[in-house]
Every structure is written in C-alpha cells, then in structure tokens.
Amino acid sequence: MRYPLALNENPYGPLPSVYRALAQALNSANRYPEFLPHRLPQLIAARIGCAPEQIVVGAGATGVILHILQAFLHRAGPRGSGVARVVLAGPTFDGYPLLTETVGGRPVTVPLTPDGMQDLDAMAAAVDEQTRVVVLCNPHNPTGTRLRNSELTAFLERIDSRIAVILDEAYIEFTPSDQRIDTAALLAAHSNVVVVRTFSKAFGLAGLRVGYALAAPETAARIARWQVPYGMNMLAEIAVEACYAAEDELTARIQAITDERDRLSVALRQLGYEVPDSSANHLFLPLPDIGAARRITCAFEHAEIGVKRYATGMRITVGDSVANDAVITSLGRLAG
User: Fold this and answer.
1) Whole-prediction pTM value?
2) Strands, E, within the chain: which ranges?
3) Which pLDDT value is given to residue 288?
4) CATH class given for the domain over 3-11+247-335
5) Which segments in the chain show pLDDT lower than 50?
6) What's the pLDDT score for residue 291?
7) Which CATH number fits domain 16-245: 3.40.640.10, 3.40.50.700, 3.40.50.2000, 3.60.10.10?
8) Residue 90 and residue 113: Cα distance in Å, rounded?
C-alpha cells in the first residue's frame, strides 16, 4: 500500500536522538529485560507526577487492556448470574471486543450518537449486574470526538464503584492541554477508573509495543498480577527515556500532525463531507449509503490509499502532507 492510513500510526520514523539510543541499545540484545518491569514504571511515574505503584506497563495499550480485562473478568464474583460483560461504544478499537471474548467475557456494544459521540446515557443504561468493565475512549477511536469533563464526571457518578471504567487515552497527546481531563483529580475521586495510554501514536513507537495503565495503587496491583515475566521489550525503557529527553522535537512533530489533521479536515468539509471535529490523529468520514462507500473505496484503492472501514464510515489516519494530498485529490475527483 502506497499510503498506509489505516492503523493510526505516526507517519514519521523515530526522532533522531531516539533512533541513536535504540541503535546503541541493540548491543545488549543478548540480555533479558527485567523479570517484571520496575524501572519503566518509575520512569513514567516521575514524568507524569504520580507514584510508581500507580503504573502498570504492558505490550502496547493492547497488552495492558488484556491484563485489565483478565483482572476484572476472571472468575467474576457473585454479583449476578451469567457471563461477565464489558460495555463499550461501537464502533471502537477492535481490540476491546476481541480481548473481551478472549478472556471469556461478553462485549455489549452501544451505538454512537449520529454526531460520532459516545452515548453516555445509553451506556449507563446498558450496565447491569453482570457488567464488570465499562470502556470510554477519549478522544474516541474511530471518530476522534472528545468527552467533556462535566459529562464524564456525571457518568462516573452513575456507575457502581465496583465496576472498572477504562478511560482509553491513546490519542491524548493530540488534544490541546487546556482541553484534557485532569486524570489525577479523576483518579482521586473515582478509584475504579483505569487510564490507559500508549507510546504507539504520538511517540511513534508502535513497533516496540509500549503502553501503560494509570490507576489507584490497589487497582494497579490487581492488574499487575497478570503481567508475564520478561514480557516487556528490552528496548522499551530506552525508547521511552529517549522520547522524554526529546520533548521539544516531539512537541514539534505532534504539532505537525495536528496541523495536517486540521488542514485535511477543512479540505474534506469543503468537499461536502460532514467530518466530526477530531482531537486525535485521525478523521472519520461518514458514509451516507452503500453507493458512496463503494465509490470512495474504489477511489482509494486506485490511489493505493489504505483506510479503516466501518459499517457507517471510514477512519483516515492523518499522514504526512503527501499522503493527505492524495486523500484530498482522490475525494476531490469524486466530487468533481
């Protein structure tokens, strides 16, 4: 595929300083990583300003999510008969329903609102005695829409504190800092919240598989019991430390991606597409009918543009300027 815009990857390679650190670290590839990770949680905790006991690392956000689901769905308690359930919006990250079924749970999908928002009222109504986990994405995948602090707080007050609420912040770095939810205050008020973040998107380390959960210490300990010995990539700590040291370069790269996101969004709206406001590194292209879906699919395939398809639309990852121009040109030809 000439323009791979399906997986929300960072379109750029590692920052030069990160690349050098990783290259040097390969000299120690014959050595095992830590039996269970301690240094990496300490590094992340120091950066974000929390206790190391609140951090659980894993093989990308996906690996962390698996451990959370194992911790809360495995041999679920007697709060009702039947299979343990996970309530989530749909569509969302494919890993959630897949991993829920992997650990023996049942995903309960609540449709998004017509404007691409998570329907918090409907999600709260879907919670029952068998529910063990609720998943919220902020920004949402695939629409890029964002939750406001007031509506999230109101939602959490409706959820039984024995139910874990995953707040997936995989794309939070693409959201302006003044629009982000204060997770420290959130965790202080709601001990059942588990924040999930990743180094795959903004940091560009998707191939190294580094993610983490941020939670109350007792919740983090419950999740950490499912970690696999030697389960973290030996390059993870090196890469994260190097990314943190390259903050100015990283900030500039994130700005470049968000600038391209906004440019692409404006261009698609000028072509007549009702693209939701995105706070992530992707856009959602709603498709009103099968005919439109087929025409756009054919146009993208002809231009070798790979995107993620859903029943109601397409998710387009923000690429570099050349890839984004290809998207605009392909859709512009259809409009013309």
Assistant:
1) 0.95
2) 3-4, 55-58, 85-90, 106-111, 131-137, 164-168, 193-198, 211-214, 282-286, 305-306, 308-309, 313-317
3) 83
4) alpha beta
5) none
6) 87
7) 3.40.640.10
8) 10
